[in-house]
Amino acid sequence: MNALPTTPRFNAVYRSLLVADVQQQLGSSLPNLTFPEEEDLAYMLSVATGLALSGSGETAEDANAARQAYEIAIRSLNFANGSTPTVRAVCDLILSRIGNFPARSLLNEQAGAAPAPGDPFLGVEMMVRRYENQLRGTGSEIVLTDFQVHLIRALEAKKSVSVSAPTSAGKSFTLEVELLRRLKDEESYIAIFMVPTRALIRQVTFDLVKVLREHGLSIPVLSAPTTPQDRIEIKKLMYVLTQERLATLLSSSDDKLRLDAVIVDEAHEIGETSRGQTLERVLAVALNRFPNARLFFSSPLRSNPEYLLKLFGREDDGVHFVEHLSPVTQNIINLHPISGSTKKTRMELVIDKEVAPLGIRELPFAFRGSYMGKLAVYFTKPDETSIVYCNEPSVADKVGLEIAGEIKEESDDPDLLDLATFLRQEIHPQYRLATLVRRGIAFHYGNIPQIIRGRIEELLQDRKLRFVCCTSTLLQGMNLPAKNIFVEDPKKGRGSPMKKGDFWNLVGRAGRLSKEFSGNVFCIFGRTWDSDVTSDRLVAIESAFEVAIKERTPELLQVVKEPPQSAESKALSWAEQTYARIYADFVSSGKRMVDRTGQNTNEQFAQIDLLSAQFKKTLPDDVFVNNYYVHPTRLEVLAGFFREQQDIRSWLPTYPWAAGSYYRLVAIFKVIEDLLIRSQTRAFRYHAFLAIEWMKGSSLKEMVSNKIERSKAGQDSDKINAAIRELFNDLESELRYKYVKYTRIYHDVLYAVLLEQKMEDEAQKLLPIHLFLEYGAANQTLINLMAIGLSRTSALLFKSYLTLRDDLNVSECQAHVNSVNIERSNLPAICIAEVRKLRRTKV
């Protein structure tokens, strides 16, 4: 390990080098530009060659030394003598020593291969370092970073691994390599790749199918909680599931389900209030059922990845480490308004925990009012891509319009034209996104349909889009890197200040590995930020469940005694979900709070245990075990309702196209409203109507048209786009999340009561409307087309184009995707592209 240099000269020159380089990148309009002297550059490069010997990013000190070496190397390249053979040779050596071979390849790509160093021993050292990091056995010349090599070795050697690393460290690629090795070498291998939200399923599925296809492996990749009919013959299988979908798979599958590995991406989300609790509970159930399954946790930079292994009892056979070093660096640039000078901004560069002035810049617009879009255009060069972080979808739309006001010229790129045409034809002629994409602009948030959102991500990666206005979906592992990020007073969700860890996760999206040496993060201070998120990069992972039982015990106890009026109580839903798990563990294994915490003297824990023991349940244990969300009292109230009915058959869900299906669903939704949600509104009637159309397979265009008509938007573009936004929110937040959750509870309780009343036939035929709602389809073929990765829109059009039967299994659906001559179809280009990407064999 090398001690960090602390001499006044080093500190002063290092600081001035960073400032000069960022000033140069921002343009010559900054006054008083500084340039490092050649003698200073030579000194810094000499020091950097020593710093680079630290290599490892496993300790903060080593990582800081390697980071400074990297900074010195890439900054030196940008000045007058940076292109000389000597400087390039030294930079090549530095990048080799810190194991950043993607950056070294980029250096050689941009400036040509660096000349060999004069000292032959240095040449041998670089050759050996490259050989050590070369990925062999894949048929391609890939050289990994030191972190990626460390991670691969850990995955090979240990049953359980938990790693924390910066956003751009290359965790996903490394994991794909390990999965590929296992799938090749193992006789049978069934793994689940868990992602925090549905927004990530498409990206991970496409990546896995691509890498498997490239290596000649025709292995199913499924994103639905279903087991293929020919599962006995299928020995290798990949699932890509959210925690909610894994819960469904575990509760509905039979004893033939096997599980060899669980990969948890964005594992730090276990600290999120609701979905974090679901994630922890589902993992506990899966690992209890499959104790020999390998386990891998991947988190953005956090201080304690070992916490996750301990939480699930895997610390004895596991390994953990923190990678502090990012292979891409970020320039954090603060922009402040100047009182009395509306068209000027004071600029600062954040260097560690200090700031260095960059100068005062004259702007061609007022730094007042609406300025985010103008700032993004002003600081984004023609060949760069930028992300503008927005706190709400409506703000993302608005900022996209602001940017469009600065960019008048439409692109003639065929991919942008195809997307614009698709949006006008399949959504609405006045959908604002169609106009924006022709100018290289888009907005992106979780409620946008999967097919559109995924295409935006691809076009940004291909640099066809220059500006994307995003919400917090970007923080959940979404692969949306860009050269620049613009952010002001960031929130995560409506009104909730962003946490420090989330901010640095966002920052890590600036700069693309193997594409750029650095990225820029512009922190805009036109208004006061609610919290300081720019300090303390390294925060701890915590369990939302553990926090609930140990730090919020009095509130929890009160909810155990008396549930709030609504299961959707924003203030107390966390407590309901916490007790749902406590009671499930109690009935399934007798586990008590005192067993969980080891605090026998805690009176509140003892009260919770006593209330669990005294609770008079009538439903089978598995109803409580499979319930992840509500107080057990609510389940018993629902069961009591079913038992009171003269004809329980009148409460069985029907197919959406059956006669009277709407009225049946309205009645079901009313029961859910009256007994569970209790919002005291009549919104359930509209949601039932929407659900019927959604499950019947109505197109987005038809549903948008109906929404616009109901909202009386007429031809008003703002009202039309507001209605489209509302519809997407209704589909994603109401139907596909809230009502999926409660219809699953409805299904489980009704199933139990049917069996209790000796109505086995009705129980076995009970329709899974929670699945129909999640997928927007009520027939096997459409659900299985989506299970192999097609978006709902593509599945509907693909099935119609081939006039497929309604009962195709997964293998039959995949066979059609593999073999159809899709290029001769009249399907939209965006759908054709999806089909191509999901083919498991090369065509």
Descriptive terms for the model:
single chain; 843 residues; alpha/beta; 8-stranded mixed β-sheet; 7-stranded parallel β-sheet; globular
Concise description?
The protein has 843 residues and is of the alpha/beta class.
How would you characterize the overall build of this protein?
With 843 residues, this protein is an alpha/beta fold. It has an 8-stranded mixed β-sheet, sandwiched between helices. The radius of gyration is 28 Å and the shape is globular.
List the helices and strands and how they pair.
Layout: H1 8-26, H2 38-51, H3 60-76, H4 85-97, H5 101-111, H6 120-133, E1 134-135, E2 142-143, H7 146-157, E3 160-164, H8 171-185, E4 189-194, H9 201-214, E5 221-222, E6 236-241, H10 243-252, E7 261-264, H11 275-289, E8 294-299, H12 306-311, E9 318-322, E10 329-338, E11 341-351, E12 354-362, H13 372-379, E13 386-389, H14 393-406, H15 414-426, H16 432-437, E14 441-444, H17 450-461, E15 467-470, E16 484-487, H18 500-507, E17 518-524, H19 544-551, H20 553-561, H21 573-589, H22 593-597, H23 603-614, H24 621-625, H25 632-644, H26 661-677, H27 683-696, H28 700-711, H29 717-756, H30 760-764, H31 769-775, H32 780-787, H33 792-802, H34 810-819, H35 829-837
Parallel strand pairs: 3-8, 3-9, 4-6, 4-7, 5-6, 7-8, 10-17, 13-15, 13-16, 14-15, 16-17
Antiparallel strand pairs: 1-2, 10-11, 11-12
Helix pairs in contact: 1-3, 2-3, 2-4, 3-4, 4-5, 7-8, 10-11, 13-14, 20-21, 20-23, 25-29, 26-27, 27-29, 28-29, 29-31, 32-33, 33-35
